[in-house]
Each structure stands twice: as C-alpha cells, then as structure tokens.
Amino acid sequence: MRPGFTLPRGTAHILLLRPHITVGAQSTAGLFQANADWTAQAREQIDAALAAAQRTLGNEVVRVPEAIGADTRLIADYQALFAVVAQSVIDCQLFKGKRLPTKKRAGQFDWTLGPDVARIARGQGCDYALFVDTEDAYGSTGRKIFQVLAAVTVGVGVRSGEHTGYAGLVDLRTGDLVWLNADRQMGGDVRTPEGAAERVAELFEGFPGSAEVPAALTVSPKAR
C-alpha cells in the first residue's frame, strides 16, 4: 500500500480492466507451454467468479467497455506497462535479494504509470483502474517424474507447476500505483469454478476499502 493511502467504502468508482489470464503446462525442462483450451476455461471461470461474487470490494466496480480501434491499442499498451511496473515491484521491492537502492527506504512505495493512464477511463467517470494478472503452468507428467528423480538421486528440490498472480490499483488522477497484492504460489485451479473463486479471493486479499477478504469481486450490474 502506498503510505498514507486510504480508500473509504462507498466513495470511489473503480474501472476493472479485462484480466490477463494465461494457462498452460510446464514441460520436463520447466518451459511454459500455453494451452488455449485451458486458458479459455480459466477466462470463463474467473469471469464468473468476478461477476457472481457475494461480497464487494467496498466501492462501485465497473468493467471497461469493449474497445475498438485506437482505444484497443491504448488499453493493451497500458496493461503491458502495468505488467512491467508490477513485475519490477515484485522483483525489486516485495522480495528480498533484488531490491533497488532507491526502493530500500522504509515506508516507501513509489511507483507510477504516469498521469496519461487516465486516458483508458475517458468518459467513464472512474477514479481508479484495477489491473489483474494470473499465470498458471501445470506440471506435466514428465516434469513430475523429473521432480521425483531430482529429489531421490541428487537431493535437489524441483518445483512442479508455477502459479503466480497479482492485482493492482492505480489512481487515475496521478497514475500512481497505490496498492499491489502479489503471490508467486497462488492457490486454486482456475479452470474450475471453485478454484477460480479461490484465486479471486487471494488476489483481492487486503484490498483497500473492503471490510474483509472477499470470496470474489462483485461487478456493477450496469457494466455486465
């Protein structure tokens, strides 16, 4: 959380961008192999978890409308920029070992996409933009066998499967990143309704303005 930032319940309009979701398999060598069918299943389940949740985030959440032409490119560009910024936060501030010298000061959380990010919400009357990203690589049979062999023969731990995700809130007036939740070992099989609901709950744990950890995100009916 950005120091000093608060988001009282019922005071803000939040624009939810279409979540970036990727699902695939992890090869024996640990390489990611995208699976279009699994990704489509995950998109459907996470979308349902977001829309059908019984708890809210404490403020009105609307989905970004379908974009065409230049607007599509603009949104895609800012989603890509956010991914870079979020990964920098994860690598250089949230986890020890790679922290940038300028990010080591206690109480500092100073990251931004720049004020021009407000263009993605033009005409929507929103105060914040909410970005979501999840990536799942399920361990293949070969990877699982390699994991066992590595442990038995040389005593080396090899991870089978990678499940990462993050959700971030950006102030559209300044472009500042005001909240980020990231996890390199997320739970829930996003290809199933139960797993998608679990993933959404983990992504929005500690979301500013919410009274408690939500089971999932309620989307404003007018935006469905």
Describe the structure.
Strands 1, 2, 3, 4, 5, 6 and 7 form a seven-stranded mixed sheet that branches. With 224 residues, the chain is α/β, with parallel strands linked by helices. It is 29% helix and 21% strand. The protein has helices at 36-51, 70-94, 141-153, 193-203, and strands at 13-16, 20-26, 32-34, 60-63, 128-139, 162-171, 177-183. Residues 213-224 have low confidence and may be disordered. Strand 6 and strand 7 form a beta hairpin. Helix 1 packs across helix 4. It is built from four helices and seven strands; from the N terminus they run βββαβαβαββα.
Largest sheet: 7 strands, mixed
Strand content is 15-25%
Structural class: alpha/beta
How many helical elements? 4
Rg calc: 18 Å
Helix/strand order: EEEHEHEHEEH
Average predicted confidence as pLDDT: 80
For the terminal residues, how far apart are their CA atoms? 29 Å
Overall spatial form:
globular
- Count of beta strands: 7
Low-confidence stretches: 213-224
Jot down its keywords.
single chain, 7-stranded mixed beta sheet, 224 residues, alpha/beta, 7 strands, disordered C terminus, 4 helices
Topology, element by element:
Elements: E1 13-16, E2 20-26, E3 32-34, H1 36-51, E4 60-63, H2 70-94, E5 128-139, H3 141-153, E6 162-171, E7 177-183, H4 193-203
Parallel strand pairs: 1-4, 1-5, 2-5
Antiparallel strand pairs: 2-3, 5-6, 6-7
Helix pairs in contact: 1-4
At a glance:
29% of the residues lie in helices and 21% in strands.
